[in-house]
Amino acid sequence: MIANKQHRLLAALALGLCGLTAQAASLDGLHFPHAQITVQHEQAEALRIYPQGTLRRVSNQVRYEAQIRAEGRLQTRTLQLPNGQQDLADAVANARETLHQLGAELLYWCEGRECGSSALWANTVFGNAQLYGPDDQQSYLLYRLPEPAADSLLALYAITRGNRRSYLHMEQLDAAEPLGELLPAAATLLRQLRERGELVLPLSEPTGAWAQRLAQCLNLASTMRVRLQGTGADAWQQALLAQRVRATRLEAVENTDAPLRLLLVR
Q1: Do you know which InterPro entries this protein is assigned to (predicted)?
Q2: Long-range contacts of range 122-126, CB-CB < 8 Å, 24 or more positions apart?
Q3: Sequence ranges of the chain with CATH classification 3.30.1330.60
């Protein structure tokens, strides 16, 4: 029964997010069976600051480890899931998988207490007190949508409150100006590598910023061994060695007929 529910939810998400990618400006295709919309809002012009790190309050000031600041058209939607935490976990997992398949780039992902204060997420980031709950019952994901919507960000925040009611908040911001280069957080790259066993790298030729970020990711797990495979593997290996990633941790298999991937060896 749970498997059937997950299958229906994934199908609905895939259908909706295909429409989202094609239209590059809409959450209307996202459907969650039996979920209740509690808040829905749209602004022609809005400023959003999306964190890429733990949220804390220091000396009465909200501190972001890193952030993405953008202005543009904002659409928000908050849903209450019908059966609490289990439905919420399924919804987030299926949304994450669907967005991955559609080519959206995950810029930041945190879960539980590593996200920081739920009160700050609810009130400071999203301005919705309904989203406040225990710090260990939250998750947050921030995506950059694929072309033709590459100047759009999609944020998802999930929380199960103390009364066991679960909410999924979604925002899409279509930036008025080009977003330029945005790099995923190092810890987010590592989380994806561990979960999937691979990362698809966006460039066949490494830039200094990307090489540094990937080296930061690998150095968070200092005993992990990886293999670079595909077009540009040798160049990436040299760039990572220049960033002081140990040679014993890196393999490279150059293949001009395959996209570049970073594979987890151990």
Answers
A1: DUF4892
A2: 122/159, 124/55, 124/62, 125/49, 125/50, 125/51, 125/55, 125/157, 126/76, 126/157, 126/169, 126/171
A3: 186-265
**pLDDT level of residue 82 (50, 70, 90 thresholds):** confident
Residue 214, φ and ψ in degrees, nearest 5: -70, -35
Q: What residue type is assigned to position 42 of the chain?
A: E
- How far apart are the C-alpha atoms of 77 and 163, rounded to whole Å? 21
| Residue labelled with tokens 């207490």 | 113
Residue intervals of the chain classified under CATH 3.40.1000 are: 27-175
- The answer to whether residue 8 scores a pLDDT higher than 50 is no
CATH class of 27-175: alpha beta
Asked if residue 152 lies in contact with residue 48, where contact means CB atoms within 8 angstroms, the answer is: no
Q: Which CATH class is domain 186-265?
A: alpha beta
Cα 6 from Cα 86, distance rounded (Å): 11
| Cα-only R_g, the chain | 19
230 vs 254: CA distance, rounded Å: 5
Residue of 129, 83, 107 lying closest to 182 (CA atoms):
107
